[in-house]
Amino acid sequence: METESVKYCTFEAAGRLFGVPLIDIKEITAETNYTCIPHAPECVSGYVNIRGNIILGLDLKQILALPAKEEDVSKRMVIFKSTVGPAFGLLVDEIGEIVSVSSQDITSDSTSIGSELQGLSGLVQNICRLPNQLLVVLNPRKFLPIIEKELYQPSR
Q1: Which of 26, 60, 73, 79 has most Cβ atoms within 10 angstroms of its Cβ?
Q2: How far apart are CA 28 and CA 9, in angstroms?
């Protein structure tokens, strides 16, 4: 019996491996020249112009409250398709590989992730067992609602 597999684009942020479904990604770019947005939450890096398209850049480490490291010129932005939401992308430290994960290695149990991420478990879609580590799969459709919630309730 053949098991189904799902493809994910992987990337790193603060030394952790994350991924999103490959089907949701439009492109990956090295463009990180942002125009700041006044009064935006800290996790909003700003707008970036990519070939005439204005994309909202979100900092994944800020959203997940992960430790920031020194500014790195190798940062990349994962840009999502319009089916995910209005034009936006995630700023990540490093792009990884495209991985194909067997459905039997995917779990929706988020208790296996670190406690520092469990506060935003709504972002966590699945956890995948890879040969050498765990892949935390994020749901890109949840990012903008979280940003909107933070914008309208800035004090926690």
Answers
A1: 60
A2: 10
